[in-house]
Amino acid sequence: MNKVDTMNEYTFTGKSRLVLMIGMGLGLLCLALSFFMDGFDHHPRFWSNLLHNSVFFTGIAFMAVFFISVCITAWAGWYTVFKRVWEAFSQFIIVGLVLMLIIGIGIYADWHHLYHWSDTSLLDPSNTASYDEVLDGKSAFLNPFWYVVIGGLIVAAWVFFAYKLRSLSLDEDVNGGDAEFKHHRKMRFWAAAFLPIAGFSSAAIIWLWVMSVDPHWYSTLFAWYTATSWFVSMLALTILVLVYLKGKGYFANVSAEHFHDLGKFMFAFSIFWTYLWFSQYMLIWYANVGEETIYFKHRIDNYPVMFYGNLIINFLVPFFILMRNDTKRKFGTLVFVSIILIFGHWWDFFLMLKPGILHTAQSTVEGAHHAGFVAGFSLPGLIEIGTMIGFLSLFLFVALTVLSKNTLLAKNDPFLEESLHHHV
Predict the structure, then answer these.
(1) By CB neighbour count within 10 A (0-12 exposed, 13-18 middle, 19+ buried), where does 366 fall?
(2) DSSP letter string, 20-73
(3) CA–CA separation, 187 vs 169, rounded Å?
(4) Cβ count near 388 (within 10 Å)
(5) Burial environment of residue 191 by CB neighbours within 10 A (0 to 12, 13 to 18, 19 or more)
(6) In this structure, what are the phi and psi dihedrals at residue 178, rounded to the nearest 5 degrees?
(7) What is the pTM of this model?
(8) Phi, psi of 9 (to 5 degrees)
(9) Membrane-spanning regions, if any (predicted)?
(10) What's the mean pLDDT in 65-91?
């Protein structure tokens, strides 16, 4: 048996399942605690934790299928030896669709008030005391129908492309290997078709799920910024999973060269994230338009630790550690930075979502805007971190289950030899 054939089927052991199930149990417990320990009506801490983690991990899964499509379309071959990991990540979109539909149905059923625009009393011009002209002007897009039906169809389309690309990849193992590379040509067709759909639909989803918690605010850079946060998180989680599986004897063909490229992408897009962070902040600060500046003013004044900590964790740490070329070949360094970045970008999404949701919750309580520190909103608490661990465990449980269903090496991929001998 040669090196290519060794440990080519992943076994999802009972011990690994138990560890992840304990993690999921912790997440459920923390969600339950956030529900019963909430001081506001409609349990915004519970619902915001559910939204925060559902958006974060669904975005990671989306970025996996997006980057697969990018690599296929670009005729890239370096990633071939571990592409099964990204294919496994992509299948979590199905779980994300279910979770986001639950949140969307909650708008119709009045289970939560995560989104200020969902209050129909603000859209009635005859009600001069509460009428909100800005929200009324945006109501053609910010409404429950768009959130549930159109948003659901968009994510369902992501599910379709993730399933299609993975099924063609798996079928190539059995029926591929022909000189004409018919399977790979089909994959290039579907990958190229997905890219423009992914570009436009992800922006719409980000506007619906994330930016609309501050419905008076808008930024043309926000979709890029948020998607980049997802992308860096996906790369970091890829490194962690590959290091773990290599430690178990799998993916023997994934070398320091492949990790070096993953590290370069993680470094480069951390810098790109910082560029977008600065560009968005600088342009809004310089223009000094009230509708735009309120977003940053609110976060700087009331969430300074979160605001400045976000930049330190997601820029300074990867910048100074990954700048050296050799650190991107060292497993220990990559693992450390990857853990920091996954937590850092989860922190980033916390800062995007929680202030707007808290503002909406406080709008129904007289004097609550001056309440000071609010558990679960001002900073992530143990309940929030436990919920994140639960969602991470769920994500890994789904990914590892999918990974165990088929061989780890795409033996008939036309770029396999290039990937096996990848060197930079």
Answers:
(1) exposed
(2) HHHHHHHHHHHHHHHHHT--STT-HHHHHHHHHHHHHHHHHHHHHHHHHHHHHH
(3) 8
(4) 25
(5) buried
(6) -80, 160
(7) 0.95
(8) -125, 120
(9) 18-36, 56-81, 88-109, 145-163, 189-210, 222-245, 265-285, 305-322, 334-353, 373-403
(10) 96
Residues 57, 233: Cα–Cα separation, whole Å? 9
Quote the tokens at residue 361: 């919750």
Closest residue by Cα to residue 358 from 31, 43, 33:
43
Token duo for residue 22: 């304990």
* 9: helix, strand or coil: strand
CB 65 within 8 A of CB 155: no
Q: Residue 424 to residues 70, 255, 256: CA-CA distances in angstroms?
A: 20, 11, 10
Tokens, residue 53:
């983690």
| Residue whose C-alpha is closest to residue 116's, from 291, 293, 356 | 356
Give the HSE-up count for residue 327: Cα atoms under 13 Å, Cβ half-sphere.
17
Mean of per-residue pLDDT scores for the chain: 93
Confidence of residue 371 (pLDDT cuts 50, 70, 90): low
CA distance readout (Å), 300 to 208, 294, 296, 320, 350: 24, 10, 6, 25, 14
Neighbours of 407 (CB within 10 A): 14
Helix/strand number for the chain, H first, E second: 16, 0
Q: What angle do CA 312, 212, 27 make, to 5 degrees?
A: 65
Burial class of residue 283 in the structure, from the number of CB atoms within 10 Å of its CB (0-12 exposed, 13-18 middle, 19+ buried): middle
Distances (CA, A) of 339 to 24, 53, 297, 403: 19, 16, 29, 22
Unique residue bearing structure tokens 């519970």: 46
Residue type, 102: I
DSSP 8-state secondary structure symbol assigned to residue 316: I
Judge whether 47 and 110 are in contact, CB under 8 Å. no
How many Å apart are CA 255 and CA 258, to the nearest integer?
5
Are the beta carbons of 184 and 172 closer than 8 angstroms?
A: yes
Question: Hey, is 282 helix, strand or coil?
Answer: helix
C-alpha closest to that of 76 among 230, 345, 258: 258
Give 200-255 pLDDT, tens digit per residue: 999 999 999 999 999 999 999 999 999 999 999 999 999 999 999 999 999 999 99
* 3-class DSSP assignment, residue 246: helix
pLDDT at residue 13 above 60? Answer: yes
Locate the domains of the chain by residue range: 19-408
